[in-house]
Sequence to fold (619 residues):
Amino acid sequence: MVRPDIIVVGGGHAGIEAAAAAARMGCQTALVTMDVRAIGRMSCNPAIGGIGKGQIVREIDALGGVMGLAADATAMQFRMLNRSKGKAVWGPRCQSDRHAYERFVQAHLASLANLEIIQGEVTAVLVENGHVRGARLADGQEILAPAVVLTAGTFLSGVLHRGDRTWPGGRIGESAAGKLSQSLRENAGLTLGRLKTGTCARLAAESIDYSKCERQDGDAQPVPFSLLTDPASFLPRQAPCWITNTNPRVHAVIRDNLARSPMYSGQITATGPRYCPSIETKVVRFADKDRHQLFLEPEGRDTNWVYINGLSTSVPVDVQEAMIHAVEGLEHAQILQHGYAIEYDYVPPTQLASTLETKTVAGLYLAGQLNGTTGYEEAAALGLMAGANAARKLRGQGEIVLGREQAYIGVMIDDLVTKGVLEPYRMFTSRAEHRLQLRADNADMRLTELARSVHLADEARLAAFSALAAAADRAMALLRQIRIDGQSLAERLANPQMALAHVLQTAGDSAAAGELRGLAASAPRAVEIVAADCLYAGYVGRQQRQVAQMTQLDRRLIPPSLDYAAIAHLRHEARQRLAEIRPRTLGQALRISGITPADINVLAVHLHAVLHAEKDDAR
Ligand SMILES: Cc1cc2nc3c(=O)[nH]c(=O)nc-3n(C[C@H](O)[C@H](O)[C@H](O)COP(=O)(O)OP(=O)(O)OC[C@H]3O[C@@H](n4cnc5c(N)ncnc54)[C@H](O)[C@@H]3O)c2cc1C
Fold:
């Protein structure tokens, strides 16, 4: 191959986006992964999006990523979650055909110029004088490159658990990457920690008694993730999911066997995702509840595998069988694969800059579950940002750091590198203080200009965006122009009780109203965006004033080499925390836990003095 500019290690959701972004930006990219057939594999549930996560998928799409396109092309069911809440926190989610998803992603990567895919295990990162030089493979081959993006997921020193049985692996049926952890410690000077996650059993569809379950269909009018998917012709053939519940008999089986669960026997010591607990944990933590909802989700159109969302577990096989057979509808269920847990190494993300480059080794970037996150969407977003930043740095161009007011992705990266993680980090809308602005519907409006300026958006996307923006502008003009009973439609839409469909219906018979209804039919996405803008106009104004204050602090850059020990008036704890995190801006410094506004004042005065001293020197 041509000597690559960038090596991406790992073909999971992070690696896919990192490789695709770097290749799209014109860098010769080598994607090295342990098994090319596993590229795009979903380790756990066959679904993309959800609350907080759907917004991330829309942002990935606006930044020219792959995930939204793959999800639209391979979806089996679309549902907008959180519809009972405000529109800002609606979460688009789709049930995916897992094999079709892998095929789509693999074909997409194969179609990209500048990208070569290599099967192999990376055992070491090569580092010289604080700069990455390339990667060594298990067969001894060395690939040299000035930038490396590691996206090893749950594979670093992965250990699987089921009952008292443990075995090494990256996930079921795949080997662990044993040696890379050691190289990260020894060659890259990184500290590693240990986290845990788990998954449920899979059942044979024909062995489930669906007549005892509640049917759950997709939305009648599914909304695609990608701007490039034409909503008018988007009519995926949707399959139903099914709902059943655990019951006191299931809970009794679990309680009676808790000592045989590696979570409770002391066998697993790492922390798992608090918001995605195993059924053992739910039964213990919510002891007063006598049922938990379970969703039976088909894994694909050409497979009989069914995923039991809500029943993640690592109890022994006989206990899994007893508890599953105690669930209504699953009395005779055939188990195709049992649930298991996995412990793996991760890199505490406070060792990363906001570009996801490690602070210890220039040119070495980390993304995905390796950074202490959980979830396909979080991983994909981190991969995209790491790949894009690696490409920018190689070209001597400025870094891409999204603000907290600009994108959920910005919130996630800022949280990770500023606060670190105590458990696998997943996105929630509550993490975003500017969530009224960070809606799933307006991701293109927020991010396309940036994607254009850094060459992440292609011509097709820019053309689709310019049509969207023009339709949105026209729709907003019409909403302001058309008045009913002395009130403009824009003002009417500010009332949360006023549904868009009702406002359109009662807009009258004028030519303008006809044009607006035409736009709602031909450009529904544009009209939805402006309707939400009208709804949130008052709140957003207030939020924007807060954003402006914070942005000022986020514009005050701190020199990366600042010697915090030399700042006389800074508290000892503040010095330590700041030296550890090395915040990029005063805004980020303020968000570090343990840092007070008074510390920021001391720091600001110091920076001011340093700046003046430098100016005096320059004179
Ligand atoms: C058992 C289990 C249960 C999970 N449950 C949930 C859940 O309930 N909810 C949720 O949101 N998420 C869950 N996840 C997490 C989800 O799968 C990950 O967040 C997501 O897949 C991370 O994407 P990634 O790209 O970082 O890593 P992965 O998807 O793990 O991909 C890593 C890739 O890197 C490759 N690789 C690793 N090391 C090397 C190496 N040294 N050399 C070459 N290639 C290498 C692997 O072959 C693989 O292709 C679960 C994961 C597992 C394994």
Remarks:
- The first strand starts at residue 6 and ends at 9.
